[in-house]
Specification:
Elements: H1 3-14, H2 40-49, H3 52-56, H4 75-92, H5 97-106, H6 115-125, H7 132-147, H8 154-161, H9 172-195, H10 206-212, H11 216-231, H12 241-259, H13 268-284, H14 291-300, H15 304-314, H16 317-328
Helix pairs in contact: 2-5, 4-5, 4-9, 4-11, 5-8, 5-9, 6-13, 8-9, 9-11, 9-12, 10-12, 13-15, 13-16, 14-15
């Protein structure tokens, strides 16, 4: 037996009967020879980790645009925190950690620069709309590796596509990532809001604190323990009703006090204007888009509006700002 086959055998003997086993994957769009060392989900995890879109996450906004300090989260550190939360839960429930990690590391690969402000701008101007979860799947299916895509397994792509609140993944591992994403941003966005002097721990309503804790670490611990305790031995990933209700109330509190806060969001209008200006420019100057991106129009018949979204949406904050300055700001005005 190969090392991979031994690992697959270990999964079948040790993991929960509800786990998604590597050997039972629905496979890839294009068949490939199996690796002799790595099961399929581990291989997917490695492909995502080594992708260009993953590296770009380090310079994409999470919530706070151009924050004054080095300790605020970026889209990359958010992704790593989602992955760690999800792996902790998966290990405790004896589910497939490789699958969980692959979904978690890939779930935001299609996110725009400037966080949800950039996403709103592209959704407004692109005729077919723009949603980062669908764009994340497009990134791994088409845009990576010079238009070849990463050829990931069905289960990883399903988890990436369905990680947002309005959808539900088909595997328990995907459901873990879906919840871990919410837990991560509730936790770290509150931490960043405290660092930015927007909120204090004591601002969280006592009705919420009484259920999930009064500090950052208490709330994170409560969420993870509650999911593990209530999901053991079940073919589902669930929270207790009181903790699920408290998490929803905490999300609402964050929306009212952070995500819509004028201090935290002061620059978002500028970011949206910048994104719309870049979209309009490249829509009228397709020759300025890299050749390998334009080739998708010739190869797949992709509409030019989608090609522009692919290019502008993949930019980092820094690259988008540099392009805007290059295209619209007279050189003598540059600082």
């Amino acid at each position: 037996m190969t090392i991979r086959e031994n690992l697959e055998q270990w999964e079948s003997e040790y993991l929960s009967p509800y786990a998604c086993l590597s050997r039972e994957s629905k496979g890839r769009a294009r068949e490939e020879e199996q690796c002799d060392i790595r099961p399929v989900f581990q291989r997917d995890r490695d492909r995502i980790l080594h992708s260009k879109s993953f590296r770009r996450l380090k310079d994409k906004t999470q919530v706070f645009l151009t924050p004054d300090g080095d300790h605020y989260r970026t889209r990359l550190t958010h992704t790593l925190e989602v992955s760690q939360n999800a792996r902790t839960i998966a290990k405790a429930l004896r589910l497939n950690e490789d699958l969980v990690e692959a979904i978690a590391l890939g779930h935001d690969l299609g996110h725009t620069p400037f966080g949800h402000a950039g996403e709103r701008a592209l959704n407004r101007v692109c005729p077919d709309g723009f949603e980062h979860s669908a764009q994340s799947v497009r990134t791994v299916d088409v845009l990576e590796k010079h238009g070849q895509g990463l050829n990931l397994t069905y289960e990883v792509r399903d988890g990436i596509r369905n990680h947002q609140t309005s959808r539900m993944p088909s595997t328990l591992e995907g459901k873990i990532v879906r919840l871990s994403d919410k837990i991560a941003y509730i936790h770290h966005d509150m931490d960043d809001a405290i660092r930015g002097n927007i909120l204090k721990d004591s601002d969280v309503p006592k009705s919420i604190g009484a259920v999930i804790g009064y500090t950052l670490s208490e709330r994170l611990d409560s969420f993870i323990h509650d999911i593990v305790i209530n999901s053991q031995g079940k073919n589902d990933i669930v929270m207790s009703e009181p903790v699920a209700k408290a998490m929803q109330e905490m999300r609402q509190f964050m929306f009212e006090n952070v995500y819509q806060n004028q201090t935290a969001k002061a620059e978002e209008g500028k970011a949206e204007m910048l994104m719309e200006a870049l979209y309009d420019y490249y829509l009228n100057h397709l020759d300025k888009i890299p050749r390998e991106t334009l080739e998708l129009m010739e190869r797949d018949g992709t509409q030019k509006e989608q090609i522009v979204c692919d290019y502008v949406g993949a930019m980092t904050d820094r690259f988008a700002i540099a392009k805007y300055e290059e295209l619209f700001i007279p050189k003598t005005w540059h600082g």
